[in-house]
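Worked Example 4.2. Consider the chain below.
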Amino acid sequence: MVKTSKTLQKTFSFIDSAMELLQKYDPNPKRSSNQMEQLDHPLHPPDLQVRQLKLGHQLQVTSLKDIIHLLYTQPLNRAEFEGLDDEARVQYEGYRPGMYVRMEFEKFPCEFITNFNASYPVIVGGLLENESNMGFIRIRIKLHRWYPKILKNRDPLILSLGWRRFQTLMYYAKREDNFRMRSLKYARKYMHVEAMCWGPITSVNTGFVALQNITDRVPEFRIAANGVVLEADQSCKIVKKLKLMGTPEKILKKTAFIKDMFHSDTEIAKFEGAKIETQSGIRGIIKKFQGDRGHFRATFEDVIKMSGKVFLVCMCVCVFT
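Applying the procedure from the previous section yields the following C-alpha cells:
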C-alpha cells in the first residue's frame, strides 16, 4: 500500500503541474475550469490530441504526453548526463542540436574548393541504404500551368527528387479503366498523368520538380512540371497501340489467305486466334500460318474482296531503353 500511495502521489503531482502549465499558456484565458477538465482529463489517453499550445518560440505541445515529457523526461535526462563529457554523451544520446561536428569526405571534387564561398550556405544530407540503388520508378506528374511548352514522350527532363538532381527520360502513360497503362505522346495539360523513368529508388510520396533548362537566365517560367513518387516497380508495363495491315492473297468463300502482315511463322504463332477486320468492317480470326513467308489462313463472317485491306489492332509492350 505504501508503494501504491507514493506512485499515486507522483502521478497526481505530474497531472497538477501539467494542468498549471496548460492554464499558464492557455491561448483562451476565459476558459472555465470545467472546460479545462473536459479537455485535459487525466484519464484521457496520452496520445490524445488536446490542442496546440506554444511555449515561448521553441516548443509546441499537442498532447498530455508532450507535457509529461517536458516536465519529467527532459529534466531526468539532463540530470543523468550532466556529469559526462561530450564524447560520452554522444555515444548515448547522439549529437544534440547546436553542436559543432567535423566531417571528412572522400573523392570530393576540386571545383567545390576552388569556388567555395563561406557566405553561401551548404546543406549536407544523407541517403538511406535503399536509396542508393537505381531502377524504374513510377510517378504521377502534372504539367505546370505557367509553363508555356508541352512535354513530349521520351524528352529528357531534369528532376530534383529528394537529395538528388538527375536527368532522365520520361515515358508518359494513362491508366485506363481496366488498369492498363496506355502510352501517351504528350503530357496532358491541366491533368495528372503517370510516367515511368529510370532513377534512384526513392520512398513513396516523395515530391519532385521537373525542369528542362537549368541555366541562369531563362525567358519563360522555369519549372516544367511537378509530382510525387508512386512506387518503385520493375514490372510495370506500358502498352502502345499497334496496327498491322495485310492484303488477301487467295479467297475461298469465307476463308482467305493473307500476306504482307507478318514476316515469319513465329510471329503468326503468337497471334493465333487474334481478331482481325477488313476495311469494310467484316470481322475475322487468324487460324494458322501457311508456308514460311509470313502468310496465314483466316476465316471471316462474310466473303471479302481481293482489293480490300485486312487490319490487326493490338497492344504491344513498350521497351524502355
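The two ends are 75 Å apart (CA to CA). Confidence is low (pLDDT under 50) at residues 30-62. Compare this with Example 4.1 before moving on.
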